[in-house]
Structure formats: C-alpha cells, structure tokens
Design brief:
It holds the Pfam family DUF1858. By secondary structure, the protein is α+β, with helices and mostly antiparallel strands. Helix content is 43%, strand content 13%.
Amino acid sequence: MTADNLTFSLEIDFIPDIQEGRMDLKAKMKEVAAKYAGTYVLDPKARPIISGLSKEDVENALKDLGLQAFGTWPSCILTCTINTPLPLRAVGMSDGWDIYTGKKTFFAFAQFPADALGLMVKACTYYLEHENYQSLEEFIDSIGYETFRDTVLGNAVADGNGSADSFYGNGGWDSPEVPPLAPGDFVRPENNIMQIIEVYPEMGPFLMEYGMSCVGCFVSYDENLWQAAQGHGMDVFEIIGEMNEFIADKYKKPLLTEDTPMETILTMYPQLLTVFQSQNIPMPSDMKTSIGIMCRDAGADVKTLIAKCDERLRSGDEM
C-alpha cells in the first residue's frame, strides 16, 4: 500500500431504537457503491459498508447520500465512519468529524468531510513515507504521539498569516471578513489568541486549563483559535461555545437571536445542527438566512429552538 493507492470505506451505525429510514438508506448506499465501483456489504451487526473508494469517491458518495457535515442527516443514523486500511478513522456525526488513531486515541476534529479526509491522507502519507517495517501504532510510539500529530496538523492548518482557508475551504462559502474583536463581541475561530486575551483577560486561565500552554508565548501572536485547538487535538467549537457562554453572561446578551444567520451556526456552533434536526428544520439554500426565517418556513417555534440551542451550548462545564 502506498499513499497513491490509499482506499477508504464508509460505514453507517444506526440508532438502535429508530428503524425509519434504514431501508431507504441501505438501498441508496447500494446505488452509490455501484456508481463508484465500490463494494457494498452488511457487517455481522447489519451495518451497511461501502469499501474500495478513493478520496474523491468518498467526498462524492457523502454528497450523494446527503451526509455532508453541514447538512441534516437521516434521523436513524448515529454515526458515519470513514475507515482506512490503517488504524486511522474519522467518526462523523451531523456536527463534524472526530479523527482517531489506534482504537480510541483522539487525533483531530474537522468540520467538513473533505477536511477530515485531507488530514487522514496526510497522516497516512507521513507514516508510509517514514515507517521502518512498523505498524502505525509502532511508528507513532517510536517518534512520539505529539511529534506525529504536530507534524501532520502543522501541514494541514492555515499558515502563520492567519488565513482561514483550510477551515472554510470546503464549506461552500467564502471566508468571512472578521471585524476586530471588541469587548462584548463573541469569539470566532479566526480570532487571534492574543487578541482574545487582550480583550478578555479571563480567557487566559480558561485556555490554559484546556492545555493551551502557548498562551502568552510568541506563537499565540500568529495563531488563531482554530489553529491552536487543532494543534492540541481539541474541538474548537466546544471551546468557543464555553467562551461565548461566558461573554453572553458577562454582557447580559443572548447567544443567539431570531436574526442570527445560519452561517454563524455553521462557523461557530456546528454542534447545534442536531438541535435543528430534532426540530425538523432543514438547511436553507442561502446560509445568510436567519434562524427566525428558517423556523417560520418550517413551522417551528423560534423561541423553543433558541432555548434548546442555548441549553446545548451550556451543557458543558462552567468557566
């Protein structure tokens, strides 16, 4: 196996108590497997799997199946996993993709499947080009997990000029123009670490509790929050949720309003997509659409949606 002929498989794990939609999804997966010359099978637990896919095939197959990270997934799906022949996989839910090495070692988070695939290809390539008759686990042990992760992520995240292209590159819209951070403004993934600390000094100890020892060093002058979280193998969106919860309480302002556009949810709080799905609110074609308009079009109560979103964001530990 080389990096050039690396193949992937897609595996669906269903929610045990929900049967609706399973047969339709399995039938669609058979069609998709045939379309991309993959192999469709059911594993011993009746989980559908498509194997023998290229990186590009996986991206297209996920689109065909409606399983992009920013879309609403069928309610019967618990997870969608992208597997490689190596012990390296991306476990996806409707808010993004957690990448693991070995059995349970968390490696990185990616919002979009193309970004997850890109990181997996980089990790596999680095291993295959440098291993000395070693398994992936043996190779990582020999060079150190931190070295392996930092090398792969260092080649994957945006460079020191603060570009957010790697974060937004596959999302279907351009990188937003981010205004300077002022007291009372909510934190975004693109905000510079030192910029955050200067405006909100209380965030320094909070970030250090997350293991971001780079706070206060020269690295943080060139590193945005997204890069820092990726470099430490953390979920930037959970961090942002907690930080903005603190800001909302301090300045007595709501985290979300009826006028909040969907693009804000996608770029700051994708973990809320499951809440939208639970309220049967579909994704709009224009991501600038406000959640108030989305609720009106779906016949949903916007106050209930906002309350559930607020509850989800506040479900983590308090600062």
